[in-house]
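Thread: magnesium ion complex, take 2
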Amino acid sequence: MAAFADAPFGAVALRNLTSAGFSAPTPTQAISWPLALGRRDLISVAKTGSGKTLGFLLPAFHLLGAHAVAPAPAPRPKVVVLAPTRELATQIYDEGAKFAPAYGCRVCCCYGGAPKYQQVKALRALHSRGVVVATPGRLNDLIEARKVDLSELEILVLDEADRMLDMGFEPQIRRIVCQEDMPQTGARQTFMFSATFPREMQILAGDFLDNYIFLTVGRVGSACKDVTQRFQFVDGRDKPDALMRYISSLEESGLTLIF
Ligand code: ADP
Ligand code: MG
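Output below.
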């Protein structure tokens, strides 16, 4: 799908894409979309900044079953996107909220460190085409409190799967995927999107995906071309000084984010 018009996303969604200032699908989108729309499980590895979010969101929005659901005691989203941090979940939510109305979908976002009340209210406002973006810990809490029911899930997305594993979320992810309400592999579609593909992720993929397609774009693990990486070797105790010297030498003004 080299052009937006090649994708079956409909006129409103296409207008959204062009009014967002996008001229064509990114390489990872161009390859992920037809595979995801073909109902395949998918692992898509591409560098940060390559547009992976819409790589999974747009097919997910498009594929959702339109059938109405009977009233249930707890909301039953059709798509769950797991992300490692509140910031990432919020970014995915923001991107999703721009496009969801064109598909008749509704998105909500659930993460830890914030009161549950608002999130539970947002979950209840989901309708039959509901999409939940969540961090693993908070989603587990909500499942256990029976505030959400995954029995009608059609698509599960693990975004930044490598980072979720790095951050030690594997037990929480396994709890979510292995709980009894979750449709089995084959009955649901599962996507993993990531910038790298470490060994732990391969094992998780074997357990959670069915006959999947593995797709990589570019050199796995490389940074986006807008990012310059500089490597400097310093002794552990000299790091704060070296960092402060480096920051004060920067010519750009503005904020600095330090990991
Ligand atoms: P990744 O998850 O691969 O790190 P994101 O999905 O966060 O990347 O996308 C990075 C940026 O690129 C976002 O600001 C997004 O809105 C933008 N973007 C997404 N798709 C396109 C496109 N087809 N053309 C131009 N920009 C895009
Ligand atoms: Mg991303």
